Amino acid sequence: MKMLSARFPEDKNITVEGDISFNNIPRQKIRDRLPQFVSYVDQCDKRFAPLTVKETLEFAYHVCGGDITRRKEFLKLLPSVKGNIEALKATKAIFQHYPDVIIQQPGLQNCQDTIVGDAMI
């Protein structure tokens, strides 16, 4: 994934073996365009050990930008058509409770008040 998203350092002293492709298209053919539609996010998150699962999700939600429907850039993209206004209302309703939605989707209700912890807790 790092190779596809151009986040892997390609130095002279690094040799890459094997085939790397995106939708069966060799990486070399679409190398310059890939970063426009491929992204990679490292899975090393820093967490606060004393927080519960729900508090951790709420914290991550707010740190990562929270409700996108409040952003001016997002609102400029929407024409004032009735259908879009209804869609915006539905989106706002979901984002208002987004950490709860994330807890319910994988069935984390039973552990939402469990402390995440670390090696010390």
Q: What can you see in these coordinates?
A:
Strand 1 and strand 2 (25-26) form a beta hairpin. The mean pLDDT is 78. 38% of the residues lie in helices and 3% in strands. The protein is mostly helical. It starts with 20 loop residues before the first strand and ends in a 17-residue tail after the last helix. 0% of the residues are buried. It has 2 domains: 1-44, no CATH class; 53-111, no CATH class.
Rg estimate, integer Å:
20 Å
Domain unit count: 2
In spatial order, strands of the major sheet run 1-2
* Mean pLDDT figure: 78
Portion of residues within helices: 25-40%
Q: How many β strands by DSSP? A: 2
The span between the termini is 33 Å
**N-to-C SSE series?**
EEHHHHHH
Strand content: under 5%
Q: pLDDT under 50 segments (min length 5)?
A: none
Topology, please?
Blueprint: E1 21-22, E2 25-26, H1 27-30, H2 34-37, H3 53-63, H4 72-76, H5 82-96, H6 98-104
Antiparallel strand pairs: 1-2
Keywords: Transport
Short description:
38% of the residues lie in helices and 3% in strands. It is mainly alpha-helical and 121 residues long. The protein has a two-stranded antiparallel sheet.
Write out key terms for the chains shown.
2 domains, transport, flat, mainly alpha, 6 helices, two-stranded antiparallel sheet, about 5% strand, about 120 residues
